[in-house]
């Protein structure tokens, strides 16, 4: 977190149960040497105590446009900020920011700044998925606001779903990324696949797998923030930063066709998708009727996209595969690395708790064709993404060294 040292960070806290987590973010930013100016909305006071925030921050808490010692607190805070972070960001604050309704100090400061803004939404799943919130988030993203996606898990009241504030580590990483301004992939074209393919059995049924696409999307966001031009070939529909080109596909064949258009010009190709190994041989048109009895489904192999990319790879390209294993992690992954002619393979033991499919976290071992091995313990998928891209950059740097 060297990037935050000496930086002016405005931390906005709005009224949600997750406000208590912002205390950890605040403490760690101050410990790392940042000057943190806190702003709380009126409703945030219902969840955390102003004394706690003032005691931990670098300057007294700001709460109102009218009670501050400065006559125009929002312009001072907004103009001095190197970054503004709102954690948690409620649906109201998101809407007010999107619409420019500067009716409290926090939103007025968000509008009175040219600094980058990091919003960390937290709310119930129904609210997060409401079209008004979805549209406001899309609008803010299109203006360059960085959204730290909420995670799924237990919410206030015991419900389970998406909407939980990202963990402090993920929020700190997003701030670090903004302030360190690392553009080591600038000018490069990075192609990433995400999600699980769906192979039709008939007009309505498919063979699918458990991939959520979260790992692939995290890599896409990290590559984008590092300056890459990103093409994301995806089977799922998750909002992404504007500037990332998304190509939607469903089957392994469609994924291969989409990659064929971009693979040759790509500097980096990362296959994080879970591609089906088999697909049904389609022998019926329309829907198989239940009263025709249980159908016998004949399977045939799908194209091995990664193996094909490995056999046709341009010399400058870094080709990265993933390996989803449940036993002999390193040996199996190394076998795939060699057979498919990859530069790197990211092995995850998908039988371990919190690892692989669907989770917000992952744990991986990254193997390189030159024999290096790096393990990353259980961490959020953005941290894994950063480690994968760091390994890519390392391969590229090694290639530039005189042999
Ligand atoms: O999407 P999430 O829920 O976040 O989960 C992440 C993940 C578990 C899907 C991801 O971390 C992961 O492991 N992706 C690869 C899953 C997989 O298909 O692994 P595999 O060992 O079966 O395949 C090896 C590699 O070959 C993969 O890069 C795969 O994309 C590729 N492949 C596989 C079959 C095929 N027909 N064509 C391919 O290109």
UniProtKB/TrEMBL annotation:
HAMAP family according to UniProt: CoaBC
SUPFAM superfamilies: CoaB-like (SSF102645), Homo-oligomeric flavin-containing Cys decarboxylases, HFCD (SSF52507)
Gene3D superfamilies the UniProt entry points to: CoaB-like (3.40.50.10300), Flavin prenyltransferase-like (3.40.50.1950)
GO cellular component assignments: phosphopantothenoylcysteine decarboxylase complex
Domain DNA/pantothenate metabolism flavoprotein C-terminal: 185-394
Organism phylogeny: unclassified sequences, metagenomes, ecological metagenomes
Signal peptide, first to last residue: none
Entry keywords, A to Z: Decarboxylase, Lyase
One function term, GO molecular function aspect: FMN binding
Name this protein carries in UniProt: Unannotated protein
Keyword check for Cell inner membrane: no
Domain Flavoprotein, first and last residues per copy: 7-177
InterPro entries named among the record's database cross-references: CoaB-like_sf, CoaBC, DNA/pantothenate-metab_flavo_C, Flavin_trans-like, Flavoprotein
GO aspect biological process, one term: pantothenate catabolic process
